[in-house]
């Protein structure tokens, strides 16, 4: 499931492959940009902004959001210019960007836009401090989390206007490692600084890993303490882990939809 660490890693790979190079061809396979042609433009920068991936071409930006299943791949092109063999079905490709020696393909992208610089700024203006970005500010993240004190911490962590990058996997793991139930209101979280510290730490250590891991061993064994382990014993205390749903349906808000969350009823209070 793409979260801030995944987007950061993909942006880094795209930047390494494309930055400073001129597009020889572009192919946008979404209706609103089907006729767009960015060939001849130079890729200036590729960055992650929370869960958003931003590719800048001077006064234009190609913005994408991976949502649940999206991914970007980079394929080297041979000297003859033959199309490389893709690792995903061609019908799932939403964007193809070619340079003389590289081909970047965005598969199953949840969102794809071509924006002006002003539109990019407006599109991303709602985001809070980026856990993996140069603007990371734990004090500002704390202020934003506390701005709606009655919200559950599990819901507040998913709201990208508080801090950008945490998704459904990480929020379960953060709450477990902080020892708090995800349903606890933010105002009642005594160790909120620890929650924020864990958020930054978990995304940072995973930002360049192929296999995301929040437990001790990133190469083998269960990668997560609680996520996806409902009904299994807690690796700390042996209590059977629980699976539930947590969102803002009860508040009639659409900012955070109900999503499955995992927790240990013994370790988390």
The percent of residues in helical segments reads 10-25%
What value does the Rg take, in angstroms?
20 Å
Strand content: 15-25%
Helix and strand content put the structural class at alpha+beta
What is the N-to-C order of secondary-structure elements (H for helix, E for strand)? Answer: HEEEEEEEEHHHHHEE
**Count of discrete alpha- or pi-helical segments spanning 4 or more residues:** 6
What is the averaged pLDDT score?
Answer: 93
Overall 3D form: globular
Unreliable residue stretches: 250-254
Strand order of the largest sheet: 1-6-7-5
Largest sheet entry: 4 strands, antiparallel
Instruction: Tell me the number of strands.
Output: 10
Distance between the termini: 27 Å
Account of the protein in words:
The longest helix has 15 residues, at about 5-20. α5 (about 170-180) packs across α6. Helices cover about 25% and strands about 20% of the residues. It is globular, with a radius of gyration of 20 Å. With about 270 residues, it is of the alpha+beta class. A 4-stranded antiparallel sheet has the order 1-6-7-5, covered by helices on one side.
In short:
The protein has 6 helices and 10 strands; from the N terminus they run H-E-E-E-E-E-E-E-E-H-H-H-H-H-E-E. With 269 residues, it is α+β, with helices and mostly antiparallel strands.
Write the layout of secondary structure elements.
Elements: H1 4-18, E1 25-28, E2 45-49, E3 52-57, E4 60-65, E5 71-76, E6 93-98, E7 102-107, E8 111-116, H2 117-124, H3 138-146, H4 153-158, H5 168-178, H6 192-206, E9 242-246, E10 259-263
Antiparallel strand pairs: 1-6, 2-3, 3-4, 4-8, 5-7, 6-7, 9-10
């Amino acid at each position: 499931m793409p979260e801030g660490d995944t987007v950061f890693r993909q942006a880094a790979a795209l930047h390494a492959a494309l930055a400073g190079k001129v597009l020889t061809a572009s192919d946008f396979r979404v209706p609103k940009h089907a006729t767009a042609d960015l060939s001849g433009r130079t890729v200036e920068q590729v960055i992650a902004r929370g869960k958003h991936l931003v590719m800048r071409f001077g006064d234009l930006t190609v913005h994408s959001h991976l949502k649940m299943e999206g991914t970007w791949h980079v394929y080297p092109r041979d000297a003859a210019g033959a199309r490389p063999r893709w690792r995903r079905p061609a019908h799932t490709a939403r964007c193809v960007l070619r340079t003389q020696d590289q081909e970047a393909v965005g598969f199953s992208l949840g969102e794809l836009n071509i924006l002006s610089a002003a539109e990019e700024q407006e599109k991303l203006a709602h985001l809070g401090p980026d856990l993996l970005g140069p603007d990371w500010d734990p004090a500002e993240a704390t202020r934003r989390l506390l701005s709606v004190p009655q919200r559950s911490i599990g819901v507040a962590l998913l709201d990208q206007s508080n801090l950008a990058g945490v998704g459904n996997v990480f929020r379960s793991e953060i709450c477990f490692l902080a020892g708090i139930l995800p349903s606890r209101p933010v105002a009642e979280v005594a160790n909120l600084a620890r929650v924020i510290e864990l958020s930054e730490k978990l995304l940072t250590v995973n930002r360049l890993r192929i296999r995301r891991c929040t437990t001790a061993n990133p190469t083998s064994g269960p990668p997560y303490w609680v996520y996806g382990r409902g009904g299994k014993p807690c690796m700390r205390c042996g209590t059977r882990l629980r699976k539930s749903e947590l969102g803002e349906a009860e508040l009639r808000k659409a900012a955070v939809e109900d999503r499955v969350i995992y927790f240990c009823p013994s370790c988390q209070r």
